[in-house]
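Handout, section B. The chain below has 226 residues.
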Amino acid sequence: MPLHADAPLTLDRREGPHGEVVLRRRGEHHEIIANGCFLMDTSDGRSERLLVDAAYDALTTGNAAPALLIGGLGVGFSLARAAANPHWRHIAVVEREQAIIDWHRSGPLARISGDALADPRSVILHTDLVTHLRTTTDRYDALCLDIDNGPDWTVTDDNENLYSPTGLAACQGRLKPGGVLAVWSAQPSPAFEDALRNVGFTGVRTEEIRVARGVPDVVHLAARPA
């Protein structure tokens, strides 16, 4: 008996250091599930692309060749959007799940990210984002985060450290003066806006992103003082 068009088909399931990650196909699209929580799928990608666009548009540093750090590879829309912009000088993507990296390098998600991964400006860093922020000496003009369903809805408990004062200070420390932090969220978070201001970010604001169905996604934007 054939599968119903809406019934998901599991393509890969792996147990990693942070729990279970699953790649499923639903009709023509793919979706990533982490610890039973839906993360994202390939049905739209509008908000992931606008996350990168909003960060670029918010830059006021005057740098003609900015460097970008993307937190979370996901289904690859953010990376692909960044690589389509010739003005980014360097595009680093931090992804802690080896399974997700594999799905892009040799799996079905390569159709979205293949060209971007082949771009010499792009590099995938297999590590935890908080660890990278605290240990790297690299500085970025923009930092785009899309690793959870938002600051108030984390996939794993340890992700909460990223949105803590210490984690946000680490984000700010990796940004060049005038650099931009952009954080994707499934819903607005006034408490997160306050947290950004409390650690010294300026120009804090929230932009709505209209989606095909349901309530709008949002991008929280903030800048390190120049």
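Note. The first strand starts at residue 9 and ends at 16. Compare this with the example in section A.
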